[in-house]
Amino acid sequence: MPLYNASKEKKVPFSSWMQKLPQSPLLFTGSSHPTLAEEISSELGCSLGKSRISQFPDGETSAEILESVSGRDVFVIQSIAIHPNQYLFELLLLIDALKRSAAKKIVAVIPYLGYCRQDRKDKPGTPITAKLVANLLASAGTSHLVTCDLHADQVEGFFEIPVEHLRCQSLLSQKAASWLGSQGIVLAPDIGSIKLGASMAKQLDLELAVMRKQRLSSTEVKMHLLGSVKGKNVLIVDDLCSTGGTLSAATDLCLQLGANKVMAAITHGLFAPGAIEKLESSPLDQILTTNTVPAPIYPSSKWAQVSIAPLIAQTIRAISS
Ligand code: R5P
User: Fold this and answer.
1) What's the whole-number average pLDDT of the chain?
2) Which residue, judged by its Cα, is nearest atom 3 of ligand 1?
3) Cα(49)–Cα(75) distance, rounded to whole angstroms?
4) Is the model more confident about 7 or about 172?
5) DSSP classification of residue 8
6) Sign of torsion, CA 309 311 314 318?
7) How much is the pTM?
8) Strand pairing category for 163-166 and 144-148
9) Phi and psi dihedrals of 243, rounded to 5?
10) Backbone torsions φ then ψ of 172, nearest 5 degrees
11) 251 in ligand 1 pocket by Cβ < 6 Å?
12) Phi, psi of 11, rounded to the nearest 5 degrees
């Protein structure tokens, strides 16, 4: 008996065969980082979906999807930084609009997931904002999350949907390697960044030193070094920089303890007001970030950025195939 008989195979109508052809991913963006969204869409060879974000006269935000998404898998690109309240809310509105327009799968691509630093109740009367944001995204209709270097890995567990947690250390290490030379050492500026630092040290085949950070106020920190940086080119690795207090205190201490020079590789350059000026005038030699957050105008050549667009595009391709 033949194992396979072509003449007996059920004929598939042409229309349903057409429906099964892979469709290019449908990308939308909020207004937080249109440059990154454009870069990702050009990596993928597709254009951005039509949508509109505007404001009502009373200050409320309005979002509108201007093309059909029915039955399609859609990706919404939006970082929750710089104006986090506005961008989080825009994202929720876009997701709700996509859900009500019958999109099949809604993937939130949030390169920087803001509000994640409050991931536990560290004193009475405080919220756990990371869990609240996870709940809001899920109840709006998010079916999948793509994000980069979360402040703490356990935040992934706050989501009951699949999470692609992308790591940016390999992108940053490629650029940092030539600067470090043979005398390099990686430094985690606080206990929370040890895992990132260890991953960077492994990629660069270097030792890891650690600092213990005492926060004196929201802008001031005091550091104690565990390890030695004497005569070394130090690479400080952290998930984010906000006021620049951590980076500048860690740099000062490294130089006081005999480091040769100090550079920083940070995933999310949030740079709150005053941070750029503070770091520009600090003895830090180089400051390298990714573009999870839009770049400010850099005052000098000590600032550099690597793009995460190829990494995000590759992830979108994998999810939509
Ligand atoms: C702390 O847990 C983070 O990893 C960063 O070190 C910190 O948030 C940086 O903030 P700033 O630049 O304000 O010192």
Assistant:
1) 92
2) 240
3) 10
4) 172
5) G
6) negative
7) 0.90
8) parallel
9) -85, -15
10) -70, -40
11) no
12) -75, 130
